[in-house]
Design brief:
single chain; alpha/beta; TIM Barrel; Double Stranded RNA Binding Domain; 3 domains; 3-stranded antiparallel β-sheet; 16 helices; binds 3-methyl-2-oxobutanoic acid; binds zinc ion
């Protein structure tokens, strides 16, 4: 049997970007579009050009910046929308207009105050009009999930006759059950006479947590384009996530379907989207969540270390995740602790391991999870102690209504350097003061503050990602003073690239 191709249509920059608070500027959208191209996405929905000048401009610029994927622009079944979309797609090397209209009775009666015949006419007219501008026209039957199958088949047949190359069957409200959605796709395959002239697409929302299941059911019944977003972001509860569909297809070879996705790029792109959109990924999110490959119980950890496949169906490196992501907690065994230390090239004999393990259990009783710095400290290998750059002192003035000021003293290879600066807050001022001493182009990419326990006098942990010379370096700091912890993390990251 020949393996079928599933086209991946990414709508992170359209449906995903509709989420309140997730708006991106054009430069950020181009960055994501280029990463989607590198990952192997077939179609990028770049925006809804008539909706705003910003969206129009983003579609223009993404069209210029991207070469291989088809660039798609959304419209309503309205001539003006279609004209504006065609104009925005002017520079796209491969272009598609995505037009459509609501087909469920809810939409026909309440949204359009219309009737079924008139909606078919409007759908056909929109496709014919879009065909005047581009060859590749995709039609969406909004709320197809709640549209009567006989009527949906009539609409689909009419738009394919009018020239639609792709027919998108959205479960707009995330209502369908997987079996019901699969039967809908099969119904279209079996009852639309010209269905072989178009590709069927799924576009499932996650209101009841069934977006991925519905998409998969659609694929198993004949859909060959899946509309998805990175991290599953999108309207309300979001869309089907790209990473889940790509990995399901990769893991289940028996489906005889393949995608063009380079899955090793998934994790980095997930973080990029999360950072640029200020939208954290839930820790237990399948494939890309912080805990997706983190085994914390001793039994699981021991099993994974003996043979990964005992508890893991995905090799973390297949999605671009480091192999040392096993979380250490009070339930972790010696094997996990030994493994993690060995990843840092710390090899202990049984007696020393027992001692470190005893200290580890004590610490694990008070801290929720134990990081690499903790265990290195327990093993007497405090990496900050041997660092080339050390923080000697930090003084900060900050408050409400004043600009924060910081002065910093650094010991660099035994010599003292001092710097002072202002900033938008105490951490910004302290980092600016370090930059006065070390004048390299360093970009702070991720900044995460965590309290270790609940009291206000407890230690705060800071994790940072700093970009230098095109690479990302991780820094960690822990201190009762959160500004000091932040600066320690920043200096830790600098020490990593200055050591190279
Ligand atoms: O959810 C939906 O129906 C949509 C369409 C515009 C494709 O996003
Ligand atoms: Zn949608």
């Amino acid at each position: 049997m020949l393996t079928d191709k599933l086209y991946i249509f990414d709508t992170t920059l359209r449906d995903g970007e509709q989420v309140p608070g997730c708006q991106l500027n054009t430069v950020e959208k181009i960055e994501i579009a280029k990463a989607l191209e590198l990952m192997g996405v077939d179609i990028i929905e770049a925006g809804f050009p008539v909706s705003s000048p910003g969206d129009f401009n983003s579609v223009v610029e993404i069209s210029k910046a991207v070469t291989w994927p088809v660039i798609c622009a959304l419209t309503r079944a309205v001539p003006k929308d279609i004209e504006v979309a065609a104009e925005a797609l002017k520079y796209a090397k491969h272009k598609r207009i995505h037009t459509g209209i609501g087909t469920s009775d809810y939409h026909i009666q309440h949204k359009f105050n219309s009737n079924r015949d008139e909606i078919v006419e409007r759908a056909v007219a929109a496709v014919k009009y879009a065909k005047k501008f581009v060859e590749d026209v995709q039609f969406y039957a909004e709320d197809a999930g709640r549209t009567d199958n006989e009527y949906l088949a009539r609409v689909v047949e009419a738009v394919i006759k009018a020239g639609a190359t792709v027919v998108n069957i959205p479960d707009t409200t995330g209502y369908c059950l997987p079996d019901e959605f699969g039967r809908k796709i099969r119904f279209l395959k079996e009852n639309v006479s010209n269905i072989d002239k178009a590709i069927i697409a799924t576009h499932c929302h996650n209101d009841l947590g069934m977006a991925t299941a519905n998409t998969l059911s659609g694929i198993m019944n004949g859909a060959r384009q899946a509309e998805v977003t990175i991290n599953g972001i999108g309207e309300r509860a979001g869309n089907t996530s790209l990473e889940e569909i790509a990995m399901i297809i990769k893991c289940h070879r028996e489906l005889d379907i393949e995608t063009n996705i380079n899955t090793r790029k998934i994790y980095a792109l997930s973080r990029k989207v999360s950072n640029l959109m200020n939208m954290p990924v839930q820790p237990n999110k399948a494939i890309v969540g912080r805990n997706a490959f983190a085994h914390s119980s001793g039994i699981h950890q021991d099993g994974v270390l003996k043979n990964r496949e005992s508890y893991e169906i995905i090799d973390p490196t297949d999605v671009g995740v480091d192999e040392n992501s096993i979380v250490l907690t009070a339930r972790s065994g010696r094997a996990a602790l030994k493994h993690r230390l060995e990843l840092h090239r710390v090899f202990l004999d049984q007696e020393s391991l027992d001692k470190v393990y005893a200290g580890f259990l004590q610490l694990a009783d008070t801290k929720k999870d134990i990081n690499d710095d903790d265990i290195l400290m327990l093993a007497g290998k405090d990496r900050h102690a041997n660092a080339r750059i050390k923080l000697e002192y930090l003084q900060v003035t900050s408050g409400i209504g004043i600009r924060a000021l910081a002065s910093v003293g650094l010991d660099i290879a035994g010599e003292r350097f001092e710097g002072a600066s202002s900033g938008n807050g105490p951490v910004d001022a302290a980092i600016n003061a370090v930059k006065k001493i070390i004048s390299r182009t360093m970009i702070l990419k991720e900044f995460l503050i965590q309290a270790i326990t609940k009291g206000s006098d407890d230690i705060g942990k800071v994790h940072m990602q700093v970009e230098y010379d095109g690479r990302i370096y991780y820094g960690f700091g822990a201190n009762t003073d959160i500004v000091a912890a932040s600066l320690e993390a920043y200096i830790d990251a600098i020490n990593k690239f200055s050591a190279e």
